[in-house]
Amino acid sequence: MIKHHNYALGLTWMFILFVIPLPLIQTLAVGLPADYADEFQAIYFGAIAYSWMLVAIYLSTRPKWLDRLIGLPDMYVIHGILSIAAIYLIYLHQSETESMGWIKTTGNWAYWLLLGILAYSLIFMAGWLTSRVPFIGIIKKWLEPLFKHEYSIWIHRLTLVATVLVFIHVILINYVVAITPFMIWFYAYSGFVLVAYVWAKVTNTKGSFRGTLTKNIEIADNIRELTIRPNDDAKVTLLPGDYVFMSFPTIKGLRELHPFSLVNSPTDSKNIVLAIRGDGDFTRSLDGVPDGTQVKFTGGYGRYDTFLSNQPQDTNIVILAGGIGVVPLLSVVDAHPNRNIRMFYTAHREADLIYGDKFKNWQNREHFQIAQQVGRFGISEVLRSLPNDWQRNTLFLIGGPSKMMRHWKRELRRHGVMAGQIYSEEFDW
After folding, report:
1. CATH of domain 208-302
2. What is the value of pTM for the model shown?
3. How confident is the model at residue 392 (pLDDT cuts 50, 70, 90)?
4. Where are the bilayer-spanning segments (predicted)?
5. Residues 320 and 400: beta-carbon distance below 8 Å
């Protein structure tokens, strides 16, 4: 029977919002002196904000266990929303408490630094927001030539400085430091995130996989296919539908890791094949990277295969793909030759319908069908092609631009498809 609900994301939100701050609030409630009763609520706001800041930093390390549970796109959404909420609570904390000296100074520095980072990040690093608010998206496109992605990453890392300032701010408050149970939790949370962050950086620096770019060709207008041969000692664990974070450490401007989806099934070849559209400063520079260049990558990430593995193996699969968003779904189709798959593939132009040779080969399979065209399919066209009992035995995988994926989710839900039957991964980060 199909699992119609995925509770992991909801439970993750509940744990972050309520469970993690609870020890800090509880120990403060017991230990705060009565002289500060008028400021209790504001002090609680500060403690909650700090716990959420630590969670946001931990999520920025891209923990793989959590990616396989809820997916990296949702982790980034949580990261962004938590950061906004934490800054709002810091504002309330400042407005309703009184302090002086270095306690006030460190608090103010942290607040204004976080506010500046937030304003910058909402434009350049919050794709989940810019894809939904066109005005912000226009500003981002206008300013992108001035603020390259590598600069954005370093600016965003100033969040660590702000967090250190908040840490100092807290340990300067005598009546808070006197609450031993609170400080135990405070140091434990801070220490755990510090170790996790440092470990992630060490892993990315020394533990990332290495490989060689063996082929870099243009397969369509503004789309390149890169083939990477991992080094013999690189024990990479990839699943169909996964993506990897890749960089070129020897080339200036291409040294920061960026995510790209697999074209091929990792179960059939040791090579990693990526198809990349030139949308940003990093991707537009790929045409100048020669064969033989050293590659650094880490992965895999993604939940397409996990989603399918958690469902009955005899269910039908319907794939709704648009443009370059078809790429991760190609490796899914490649890896499941015996599954009943019906695919609907669209693009804005005929030239953007890539990998036609793959589809021709797959049509020799007994259980694979594809319909492709320029322009979007209607929901009625999709549903008419499905068996009468599709609501009980069909899963829907969506890949494409964010607007397209949100459109299909709304349409499918409106026609009776349960949320647990649908999976997609947005790459607007």
Report:
1. 2.40.30.10
2. 0.84
3. confident
4. 7-30, 42-60, 72-91, 111-130, 151-176, 182-200
5. yes
